[in-house]
Design a protein that fits this description.
This protein has about 350 residues and is mainly α. The chain has two domains: about 10-95, Roll (Membrane-bound Lytic Murein Transglycosylase D, Chain A); about 125-345, no CATH class. The protein is about 40% helix and about 5% strand. It contains 14 helices and four strands. It has helices at about 10-20, 40-50, 55-70, 110-115, 125-130, 135-140, 145-155, 165-180, 185-195, 220, 235-250, 260-270, 305-320, 330-340; strands at about 30, 80-85, 205, 210-215. The strands form two sheets. A two-stranded antiparallel ribbon has the order 1-2. Strands 3-4 form a two-stranded antiparallel sheet. Strand 3 and strand 4 (about 210-215) form a beta hairpin. Helix 8 (about 165-180) packs parallel to helix 11 (about 235-250), helix 12 (about 260-270) packs across helix 13 and helix 13 packs across helix 14 (about 330-340). The protein is elongated and about 65 Å long.
Length: about 350
């Protein structure tokens, strides 16, 4: 951390700069407690010193702390783990400051990203997170929180080996670039379909991370496995991502010129023909019932609309990744039962 904060900052940014420049580095460790997140602990350090910090500053500083502690996944820390926060150059953290929920889910904006330079992700760091060399210098979002948390959860649950994590991330980012969708949206899709990139997810007729289904002109047939769809379950996550690439190409996503929305991305997997109906609250021609989260009001007796799909995908994401703590106990309980069950069985 040798590059000074831009002197063009004012207000909150100036306060951040003042503490950054004025506090001497010292060896400070924090023992992780249940409910802690790395970004939340970073925020707590700054709150303790009454220093305003933007969401983007906190996010990028959390990644700096992770690199300093040689943590492979900044979104996965465990109770009892000791984290060295010396790189923040702030006094030791008083644990009472961290009591209560530590909100880590404020959207990161490109404008906010420009406020932090000393701990900004380098081109190399962005490349490691899946950006191409050119994007590493131009990408202003950089960190895909839902994707990273989904990947961390996949490792924790044994869906993918830790040593394959970078390769998986690269493939997902490649798909996102090729078919012009948000990486976080692909993560949301897999959370609904397979509990989050679980290559062994199956309901007997649909299999794998996006639920390739048996039958003529369905998912398994589209990737050349019409006669042996269950062979998908013998493939690892990396191989199944190659199948996803083939499926998306067959579904015509490569022809999409504009950014593909989450609803269209999900409909490509669920019922591609339903993409023709673009009105947000009109019932879609989808055989049901599907996962209750996808239906209007979470009621399988109600239809599925584009808006209900969006609401359901976000609700499932919040529940499975713990983003809805204290706000939606019903969704969380449902997710705990459903997290490893394909959507078509829920």
């Amino acid at each position: 951390m040798n590059t000074p904060v831009s002197t063009s900052m004012s207000g909150k940014g100036a306060a951040f700069q003042q503490v950054w420049a004025g506090v001497q580095s010292s060896h400070k460790t924090v023992e992780v407690e249940s409910g802690d997140t790395l970004i939340g602990l970073v925020k707590a350090h700054f709150r303790q010193n009454q220093v305003p910090i933007t969401e983007t500053q906190a996010t990028q500083l959390a990644h700096q702390v992770a690199r300093h502690n040689q943590l492979d996944n900044p979104d996965l820390i465990l109770p009892g783990q000791k984290i060295d926060f010396a790189s923040l150059q702030l006094p030791a953290l008083s644990r009472q400051v961290t009591q209560g929920p530590l909100d880590i889910h404020t959207p990161i904006t490109a404008q906010a990203l420009q406020q932090l330079r000393p701990s900004g992700l380098t081109a190399d760091a962005l490349a490691l997170r899946g950006a191409s060399p050119s994007e590493a210098h131009t990408n202003t979002s950089g960190i895909h929180t839902v994707l990273e948390k989904t990947l961390g959860r996949a490792v924790e649950k044994g869906f993918v080996a830790a040593q394959d994590l970078d390769a998986v991330r690269q493939k997902v980012m490649g798909l996102a670039r090729r078919y012009n969708f948000a990486p976080d949206d692909f993560a949301r899709l897999t959370l609904m379909e397979s509990g989050g990139m679980n290559p062994q997810a199956s309901n007997g007729s649909c299999h794998g991370i996006i639920q390739f289904c048996d039958g003529a002109n369905r998912g398994a047939a589209a990737v050349g496995l019409k006669n042996n769809p269950r062979a998908i379950l013998g493939m690892g996550l990396l191989q199944q991502l190659d199948l996803v690439d083939r499926y998306f190409s067959q579904a015509g996503l490569a022809a999409q010129g504009q950014k593909l929305g989450l609803d269209d991305l999900y409909l490509t997997v669920l019922t591609p023909a339903a993409r023709q109906e673009t009105r947000p609250d009109v019932p879609l021609p989808i055989a049901g019932p599907q996962a209750r989260h996808l239906h209007v009001g979470g009621d399988t007796r109600q239809p599925i609309t584009r808006n209900s799909i969006l609401a359901g995908l976000h609700s499932m994401t919040d529940a499975l990744l713990g983003l809805a703590q204290g706000k939606n106990n019903g969704s969380r309980k449902y997710a705990e039962m459903a997290q490893n069950t394909p959507a078509s069985l829920r």
